[in-house]
Design goal:
alpha+beta; Ybab, Chain: A; three-stranded antiparallel β-sheet; 3 helices; Nucleoid-associated protein SAMN02910291_00208; YbaB-like_sf; cytoplasm
């Protein structure tokens, strides 16, 4: 029975660390750019879009489709960076074990 108590205690410690990490990651910002810096996207660790910055030069050509592509590329890259950071940090906490539903 002692081993079971140790396992439960370790699981509780891991759960607390994961909850703390999720909160901290949600407060961080991750940025990515596209088009040589003409578009910059900022997302939270929860992958929520916080900010889009568009250089006025990107509007000069009037190519709306290109601008849309640049926005998508920047947002997707910022989201990827946030996901990879969360995955890496979760892996450190869990010792490399993939925990379904957590990340």
């Amino acid at each position: 029975m002692r081993n079971m108590n140790d396992i439960l205690r370790q699981a509780q410690v891991m759960q607390n660390k994961i909850a703390k990490l999720q909160q901290e990651m949600g407060e961080h910002s991750y940025e990515a750019t596209s088009g040589g810096g003409m578009v910059k996207a900022e997302v939270s660790g929860k992958q929520e879009l916080r900010k889009i910055t568009i250089d006025p030069k990107a509007l000069e050509g009037g190519d709306v489709e290109m601008l849309q592509d640049l926005i998508l590329a920047a947002v997707n890259e910022a989201g990827r960076i946030a996901r990879e950071t969360m995955d890496r940090e979760m892996s450190n906490i869990s010792g490399g074990i993939k925990l379904p539903g957590l990340f």
